[in-house]
Amino acid sequence: MKKIFLLASFILLVTTACDRDFDEPNPNNPTIASFWKSESDAVKGINAVYSTFHRTATLYSRFLFYHGMLRSDEGYGSGGDITLNNIMSFNQTNYNEGLTAGTWQNLFIGVFRANQVLAYVPEIAMDEALKNRIIGEAKFLRGLFYFNLTLYYGRPPLILEPSEPTDRPSNATNAEAWAQVEKDLSEAAAALPLSYTGDDLGRATRGAALGLLGKAHLQQNKYQEAVNTLAWFITGEGKSLYSLVPNYQDNFKASTENNSESVFEIQFRFNPNESTDDDVDETRINNTGTSIAQFYAPRGVGFSDGGARRWLIGEFEKEKTAAGTRDPRLAATLLFDSTDVRGPQFTTVYGQTFASRYGTTGGESSAVWFRKQLNDNEPGRTEEGFRSPNNLRLIRYADILLMYAEALNGTGQTTQAYPYVDMVRARAGLRPLTQAKPAMTQAQFLAQIKHERITELTGESWRFADLQRWGDLGPELAARDPEFTNFVKGRNEWYPIPQSDIDLNPNLTQNPGY
Hints:
Elements: H1 39-51, H2 63-70, E1 75-77, H3 82-88, H4 98-120, H5 128-153, H6 174-191, H7 206-219, H8 223-234, E2 262-266, H9 292-296, E3 306-308, H10 311-316, H11 329-333, E4 334-335, E5 348-349, E6 352-353, H12 354-358, E7 369-370, E8 392-396, H13 397-410, H14 414-427, H15 433-436, H16 442-457, H17 463-470, H18 499-504
Antiparallel strand pairs: 1-3, 2-8, 4-7, 5-6
Helix pairs in contact: 1-4, 1-5, 4-5, 5-6, 6-7, 7-8, 7-13, 8-13, 13-14, 13-16, 14-16
């Protein structure tokens, strides 16, 4: 499958820490005054915003998986990276640590790039339809960057114009930050097309903007707003655009990307000649793949730095399919001793049986790994690497259906919410909820939604957001994840703002409890 490659040939200038003397300008670099002149410049500019996704390991190449999965109760730091393990267990003491400070900084690099597009593209004489689309893409991307900043840091400053070294913005409130996310995504949806073809496949669509907008509404427990937005997929013009693919695992294979279930994917591509993750280093070849597979893969294949909690297996085993078999999503979601239901002698891990790699007692015989970011389904694959081509399906139609059901239930329309959960369950072969658990109360239905999101979406980086939205983060989760013994309510819902930014900007204040 041909996939879009969204790295710009010109990368917008950003302020980064390196050895270059910034007092001596590089005469080969374009400047703002000399750049933003043509339609080609506008396209290169928006491509540079997308390129931020895989700029260094701090965003969708790796760290955003850690934030959404390992910091939640579904995963933990399982390898030798002590800094990672401490942060994921709520023991962070260095507020400038790259895992959190780097994500913050690179999200703002994305904001910086989007702001340039929004400031300068409107003045370019070019095709108006393309101009409007590029502006819509920039608003979507800025909305996505601020979604993550608001979700993980709570009170980011709102920077909506190209920034200058003398800027000293103050924190926004959490409500103000979410309001800006909603504004950007609403305006993006109005400008974006329904779909793309050819080399443009993978760019932001109207569905991507509305899907993320619905998620932003739901994250704030704005149930009616979420219903109104997500209805576009159910009864609006999006109804004919998306559908659940018959094979659940096709959502996680490099060979079946950008399928009918995909609402928005982070595009990756294998580049065997890459020599850097820094997309502003013009002397080297950028890595357009993702490194998460190398860090999540089982020991002996990858680094095993991020493990899955074993309690998840029990969630999948709570209910048999209508045919009396195990939920097939378990094998697609987790690698463990019984990914093959027959046990460790039959479960294959990159060409070898689980039993031969890890034994059946002691050691790693009880280890569990996330599977969806891996490439073990490729024939002959025996190891992972730092340049996986496997796209991240950031928003899937199944997620839309479960969010819509949750929002309907939140507005008191519990009966009306059943069919959308049933659509997701039917693909897994489970009986409809209308048969399995009819006439649930609003509270019972929400509890069921929490279960359904585990069995459908585990390992897709949304678990921390779910727990935060439901108010379920706290020491009470220690029964299934011992690291939550360290969780302090009112503090650990958000990461600390990097101390280096606060030192440079007296108008920024630290998050509560840090």
